[in-house]
Structure formats: C-alpha cells, structure tokens
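Title: [Solved] Ribosome-binding factor A 3D structure

Original question kept below for reference.
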Amino acid sequence: MASLLQQELASVLQRDLPHLFGGGMAPGISTVKVTPDLGQARVYLSLLLGGDAEQRLAIIRDNGKEIRHALAKRIRQTARVVPELIFFHDDSAAYAAHMDEILGTLVIPPAPKDDASGDEEDKSARPRLFKGE
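Solution (posted by the thread starter after getting help):
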C-alpha cells in the first residue's frame, strides 16, 4: 500500500496539481509509511529544489484535502480507504551532503609503512592475546 501511495502521490503532485507550486518543480516523495490500520500515511517529501522548503511544505499541508481528494480519484479502484495524509520534510539528502562536505575536509594521514623485514615479527609490537604469549 505504501508503494502504491508513493507512486500515485508523485503523479498527483506532478500532473494533477502543478498549480500548487506556481509553475515550479513538484517535490519528490522520498518515503511513505502507512499505519497497520491504513488510517494514516506519513509522507516524507524531498524539498531540496525549488525554493524555500518550509514555505513549500506549508503550501502542501494547507492543500492536504485537495491532494487527498485527487489521490482518491486515482486509487478508488485499488483501495477501499484513502488514508489521512500527514506531510513531513525529508532532509536526509541535505544531511548526507553536509556529512560528505565534512568528511571531505578531514585530513587523514597515510598509514605508517611496516619496516619489519622477512617473516619474523616483533612480538613486542603486536598485542598480547593470551597470558603465555
């Protein structure tokens, strides 16, 4: 049910209700999580492109009934109940980009080269695992 809602909500936002975004790009649907009783669906939106994310999320929340009605028209043959839609901003992509930026600035020194020659190992250099070693 969650994947059906994800696909159909993406179509609703892109094809049926593009006027909500003023000609801008419709948000992507990252994930949909449905409660076991199919009463609620938590819709996580990717709002990276197209302007202020909080403003776009507010527009979507204000038009939730219209979005749910358009979704009901699309899935009326498949589902008996159209769940209540609760919209959330999915900022995981922005977080991943931020972490990538932080990891890119780290200076990691190269690993020290092993100066041991041959197969003979220095017993004092390796950790002792047992008392008798």
